[in-house]
Amino acid sequence: MDQFQIETAQNITINQNTSNLGERMLAYIIDSFVITVYIVLIFILLASLDIDLFDQWSYYLVLSLPAFLYYLLFETFSDGKTIGKGIMSLRVVKLDGSKPSFANYFVRWVLRIIDVSLTSGGAAVLTILIRGKGQRIGDIAAGTTVISEKKRVSLRDTLLRELPEDYKPQFPQVTVFKDSEMQTVKELFDKSRYNGNHNVILSLDKRIKEVTGINTTLKPVDFVDVVIKDYNYYTQKM
Q1: pTM of the model
Q2: Domain around 16
Q3: Strand 144-148 to strand 13-17: parallel, antiparallel, or no bridges (unpaired)?
C-alpha cells in the first residue's frame, strides 16, 4: 500500500495510505451490484403497474436518476464514500487532506465517462498504476485521491504494551533482540502464563539470560515480563 504525505493548514504533516487497485476494483464491483439491484427493482415495480409502455419508460427515466447520480450523491452526502467504498474502508479526500467540495465530487463524477464508461475502466486502471497517488483521471482533475482508512498493523504494533509514564527500564541488554524474536517470546510467555505452563516460562528465562548475559534475582515469570516491557520502552524511544 503506497503512502503519500499531506500537509494541513496548521503545517502538520500526515502520512495517508492510498487505496490499492484491488480495493478500488472490489468497491466498484460492490457499487455496480447495488446499482444493478436498484435498476432491476425498478423494472419489477414498473412491470407490476398497469400502465402502458410509453408511461413505463417515462417513470423509468425519473426513477433511474438515483442510479445515474449514485456516485455523486453518495460521495457528496456520505463524506466521500459510496456503499462499496464504505465496505472497503475507502474514502475520497483532497490531496491536502481536507474534505472535497461538491465541485470536486462533480468533476470526478463527470470524468467517470472517460475513466470508466468509455474505456471500460482501462483509463482509470492505467492512470492509477502510473500516477502513484491512487488517482484516476477524474481525481487528477479534481485534486482528489482515494485513501484507505484500514489501520495497518505492523509487527511492532503487536509488541506494544501499555507502560506507565514513569516506567523505568531495568535491562538495556534486551535491545539485542529483533522484533520477530521478541514477538515469539511475548507470544510464548502470554500463552504459557495463561495456561499455567511454568516450564516454558523457565525455558524463556534461561534462554534470555544466556543471550543477554543478564543476572537477576527476579522470579522467571517477573523477569520475562520485565524484559518484554523493557524492549517496548527502548524500541518506542528509538
Answers
A1: 0.61
A2: 3-148
A3: unpaired
